[in-house]
Amino acid sequence: MTGFTFLRRTVLLVAAALTLSQSLKAQSLGQGGTAYHTVGLQANGLVYAWGHGNQGQLGNDEYSNSSTLVQVVKGAYSGTTYLGDDTDNKITMLGSGRHFSIALATDGTVYTWGYGNWGTLGHNSTSSSDTPVKVVNGDYSGTSYLGDNSSNKITAVAQGGQHSIALATDGTVYTWGRNYYGQLGNNSSGDDSDESTPVKVLMGSYSGTTYLGDDSDNKIIAVAAGESHSIALAADGTVFAWGYGSNGQMGNSNSSENNAVPVKVVSGAYSVGRTSTYLGDDSDDKITAISAGYYHSLALATDGTVYAWGLNNEGQLGDNSTTNRSTPVKVLDGAYSGTTYLGDDSDNKITAVTAGYFHSASVATDGTVYAWGRNDEGQLGNSSTTDSSTPVKVVGQGGTGYFDMDDVTAPSAPTGLAATSYYGGAKLSWTANSESDLAKYNVYYSTDNSTYTKYSDEPTTNSYTATGGTIGTLYYYMVSAFDDAGI
After folding, report:
1. C-beta neighbour count of 439 within 10 angstroms
2. Cβ-contact 247, 265 below 8 angstroms
3. Which of 89, 194, 249, 461 pairs with 350 at a CA distance of 20 to 30 A?
4. pTM score, whole prediction
């Protein structure tokens, strides 16, 4: 990298930096099919939020909405300024409930913020907080806080409408918050059964000693939370549900019964072509992933097919009907190129599922995305606002082609960056990228060749006029390219 100077003092001293290609860092979004806000996790462990914030659920020390990203402050987290800013104890997982949020740290401890009524924050209080608080231990065998036992850390968290779930290393499950319908799984329900500290979920129909997941040979390996129901996946592939069941959410063939302890989801359509009693009980075709929406649930089988049960008023179960189901149905293929069912092509299995408020979505091996259910606000991403009771294919950006989750290759770096002096700035040019999906360039400047600042403009052609500089100052520039997937 070389700089050059000009004799005239009225111009900037400019330098063309070596060009860099920048790919989007790994990120994740907090799961929450009942929330009006979103939390996002950056690869460096920092947490951002946006959307509805009047209950403090954005965690930025304010009780106000935000249509742009705000950074969650540290609160009770042992960092410097922001949640996750301790590089030795990054945030690894997020979740969002109706008016509150949750975060899991590397050390296994759990933080919550937002609306605190019903004990939803788990800090032994019903007060709300617009900064993160640390969930106390309750029934968990630790020192003071949930997950603070290094030999039995919390490994996963999930949030429902007004309750939370945490999964420990030993396979046991803890819940707190509202419990009117028995969604905490501790054999209680009603107005006076809410819990502001974690309780341990009882075993119910699970074959253990006392608690769900306490059989070391069949631990609970995943948890999910709907509006007022909870589900858990065991290592043997079977699924358990508890809480509100008036729309068939329990999956145990009872369409109206609530359950204050876990019940085992029956086989339903899973039993077709095999001898089966419970969903996932075929060791050759276990359930491998689960997700809970508002009043429905999804399960992904080893063979790539998808099962759904619960409320179906908007077609969110994907069985070409709007009939509620109290036992699992198999999601039909719809726009998926299979034989009969979504994921039934062994060369293009479904690899991930997620349940939203009144819609559902999945990702196939080839990176394509399918969605079904309610679509009045474009939830299905198919350039339509018409509901669909079978899967449709999510289209690409701008309605062109189809969205491809596998298209994660960053475009090649721009080359030939050149800078010429311009009063108050510099005229930059570079060789355009050849990728057909190139969307834009980002341009950065620096005065020390170390810390670079991005210009707010994002040019779509291979030239840019940089302005706003200080005369007599040496500037360095660099350019990065992004495709239409933001990579």
Report:
1. 17
2. no
3. 249
4. 0.81
